[in-house]
Amino acid sequence: xxxxxxxxEFTTAAGIRAxxxxxxxGGSRIGFVPTMGFLHEGHLRLVDAARAVSDVVVMSIxxxxxxxxxxxxxxxxxxxxxxxxxxxxxxxxDALFLPDVSVMYPPGxxxxxxxxxxxxxxxxxxxxxxxxxxxxxxxxxxxxxxxxVAVFGQKDAQQVAxxxxxxxxxxxxxxxxVAPTAREPDGLALSSRNTYLSPADRRDAVGxxxxxxAAHDAWREGETDGRRLEAVARRALEVxxxxxxxxxSAVEPDALAPAEIVGAGYLMLVAARxxxxxxxxxxxFGEGIP
Length: 290
Prior knowledge:
Layout: E1 8-10, H1 13-25, E2 30-35, H2 41-52, E3 56-61, H3 81-90, E4 95-97, H4 101-104, H5 123-126, H6 130-145, E5 149-153, H7 157-169, E6 175-179, H8 199-205, H9 207-220, H10 226-237, E7 243-251, E8 267-274, E9 277-284
Parallel strand pairs: 1-4, 2-3, 2-5, 3-4, 5-6
Antiparallel strand pairs: 7-8, 8-9
């Protein structure tokens, strides 16, 4: 039985600010986990990572309309706030920030964070404007919650790189923790979008992690040429006929530019359609996929 108290809930900017200010005045270090809800084990491991380096943990749940493109169905994004509340309580979240759109973007709110060129490639090329929406909401959440540390997942590698750059460029006083990608036992990266997969799609979806693992194995065996490692991944993906890759690329970890020679800490990124569902994944060379 869950022994943790239910998190405090706040829906207004004034409410979450007052609570965080009181916690900090009492000497607490504030950890923050921003989410769009429909929680799974990956989100909950972010809570664990925040707990390890802070005294109180705030989680936000907000489906951010700014990061959805005109062809992406915002209304279709999965939601289950009752379940989210239960899972957050079970993992010991101290406060939930549950703003609606009118709180985050009041009428007349038209200021946006404009990222640099690293936002125009990979996911940014496939989803124009997406990362401006991501950085805008993260900036607003950082402003409202004022965390000492914020935790993000490695699965969204380009997002992490851009948030890290925003924090650096704007001198934001927040430490970033990047938690490893949480996976199913067969390697599939946990994602709220996995609920869209049919049984056949689910069998093929494991191809993304299999392709990344094959590339990483080749790197461990001494192959460092980026294009050859990409070819290894593409060949591994051919075993899964339901996967339609959009990109597979070895990149350096800061600007995410294509890497001719791959060293430890570099990434391989993959995005693919499996059925009607678009999935992303990545591997950090030197860390691998369990």
